[in-house]
UniProtKB/TrEMBL annotation:
Protein's UniProt name: D-methionine transport system substrate-binding protein
Matches recorded under Gene3D superfamilies: Periplasmic binding protein-like II
Superkingdom assignment: Bacteria
Matching PANTHER family: D-METHIONINE-BINDING LIPOPROTEIN METQ, METHIONINE-BINDING LIPOPROTEIN METQ
Family: Belongs to the NlpA lipoprotein family.
InterPro entries in alphabetical order: Lipoprotein_NlpA
UniProt keyword list: Lipoprotein, Membrane, Palmitate, Signal
Topology versus the membrane: Lipid-anchor
Length: 279
């Protein structure tokens, strides 16, 4: 009898030990589950990667882990990656560019409101100090994608250098009706336009691209007066714009700490909409 009681006690102790071990294991698994964050991949290019870094910093206590995916090359690569599901969103192209991409590729990418910023676009030259100095047969480098080409041509028209048959929604070089100085247009990939600065007479480029290249981005011969009409923000696939991570991402861009870092870094080449009165 004593032996049986002893065996029963050992059996009860064993059950308690095993039960405690399982409880601890389940508890540890629950902790791991709480600490595991959902990874969100956000595409960018060198010109916008600092923005993603600032958002990552603002969202460090979020349940989402923002992973920055930096693309190099043509400006359409992030949009293509978003459409095929390789990334969850991107911050690169302006609204009109995204709309044209959707139309040409039968995609449904959506830019999230309120828009974050716009970029200053200008005219630069390593040879001349004013538009009036531009000689006949001058070579001008402009972005070659449809939307930014249209924007560049309209800027040249505002400067009085060409006239366009601008009845079309998007103009190209074939729509130039008057070109008194016989300007030659060199079409470039927008990310490479600034590289032509010393090879041509004039370029049309974003001020931040000039800044990143170490050039004097404030020495523009002419500033685009419609910069604000080309907003940039987080772009996602249609139907995902109301997801929680999108809301947290956009909230991060509205924090004072984000805005401070943004303005200090971009030095006026990118302008936040919520820094503008009336926006």
């Amino acid at each position: 009898m004593v032996k049986n009681r002893y065996i029963k006690k050992l059996f009860l102790i064993l059950i308690l030990v095993l039960g405690t071990g399982c409880s601890n294991k389940n508890s540890n698994e629950n902790v791991d589950k709480v600490e595991e964050k959902e990874t969100i991949k956000i595409g960018c290019m060198r010109i916008t990667e600092d923005i993603i870094d600032y958002v990552i910093d603002e969202m460090k206590d979020s349940n989402y882990k923002i992973e920055k995916v930096v693309f190099d090359g043509a400006s359409n690569i992030p949009a293509t990656a978003l459409n095929d599901g390789s990334i969850d969103g991107f911050v690169v192209n302006h609204l009109q560019w995204v709309e044209v991409f959707n139309e040409k590729n039968n995609t449904n990418l959506k830019m999230v409101k309120p828009y974050i910023y716009y970029f200053k676009n200008g005219v630069y030259s390593s040879k001349y100090n004013s538009i009036d100095e531009l000689p006949k047969d001058a070579v001008v480098a402009i972005p070659g994608d449809p939307n930014n080409m249209d924007r560049s041509l309209r800027l040249l028209q505002r400067m009085g250098l060409i006239k366009l048959d601008d009845k079309k929604e998007l103009c190209n070089v074939a729509d130039i009706t008057e070109n008194p100085k016989n300007i030659k247009l060199l079409e470039t990939e927008i990310t490479a336009t600034v590289k032509s600065l010393y090879d041509v007479d004039m370029i049309i480029s974003g001020a931040n691209a000039m800044r990143l290249s170490g050039e004097d981005f404030e020495k523009s011969l002419f500033n685009d007066p419609v910069d604000k009409d080309f907003p940039i923000s987080l772009t996602v696939n249609d139907g995902t714009e109301d997801e929680k991570w999108v809301k947290e991402f956009m909230e991060a861009t509205n924090k004072e700490s984000f805005k401070k870092k943004f303005n200090e870094n971009y030095k006026g080449t990118f302008i936040l909409y919520n820094d503008i009165k009336g926006e």
